[in-house]
Amino acid sequence: MNFFYKYTVEDFDNLHNQVYQNQSESSKRTFKSTLKRIEKVYGKPLNELELEFCKDPVRLHICFQGTNYKENTFFQTISCCIKILKMIDAPLGLINKYIKYHKTQADKVQTEKIKTFQNTDLKVEFTDLKQTLIDYIETENLYELNYKDFISLLILSLFILIIPSRSSNYMNMKIYTGSNLPDDDSHNYLINDKKKKEYSFVFNNSRKNTVLPKRILPITNNKLAKLIDIYLNDYYKDNKTRWFLKRNISPFGEYKNIEIQRAVIYSSENIFGFSVNINDIRKLYLKHIYKLDVNLLDHFELIYILGYKSLPAMLKKN
Predict the structure, then answer these.
(1) Domain boundaries, given as residue ranges, for the chain
(2) Cα-atom radius of gyration of the chain, to the nearest Å?
(3) Which residue in 9, 19, 84, 292 is deepest, having the highest Cβ count within 10 Å?
């Protein structure tokens, strides 16, 4: 490790970009900004710290506890340290020490949130679920999850971090790389616009006898964009079918509707400490939006994206 003692932020940034070439630009920027944050916490340039922050996770945590940074910021920092330790081929025991400490502390935070949710006097709001999910994404080492846990997290996020569309909209969905919309309207699509570094969903589904017009849903939530980045770069195996959500074990193929629903229940149980289904989330979302805007009745575009043919009874004015 001594060889890297004099590495600057730029040195580690360049090394990171070489080792993790396929990671998204946002992940690369996060890594560099985390290194600069470490300099602020310790009050010294990185090349004067002799990797002090990579020697003991407990001491690192104590340093952060003396600042105004939130707990999530510490988890982001320790994840950065784990990356550095792996890049410089540090002793496996030290790497595992950081990984174990990260998991132990993250589990403590998650347990406290679960206790809060399980308080019978608390009515769960959509914003509560969303913030807890965001906290989980920020604190969990997303690259260490198994495939089932990661894709379930991604699927849950599709219904919380953006407008919760109908689950059937994510079936028959393929990944399309390009800036223009595909002419084909027989599939739904995840548009991967690499030039603009943006994602969008295109829904071409029909529901019962009513053909819904093409709907385009841009992904503006950076946490969801990050999950899709990681999914495509680290978890997704392209076997030329280009299905968006698919199994990685036999029988291979696209996720069925029931599997999407089960993934939401599985991941919500893991993250929130209790299960919610897609219908629960959609109802909570509608109530949340209605509280923000009592003129929701005039916003038919939102209702159509949600996939309702008519206004839900619970929102109709008396």
Answers:
(1) 2-122, 145-315
(2) 22
(3) 84
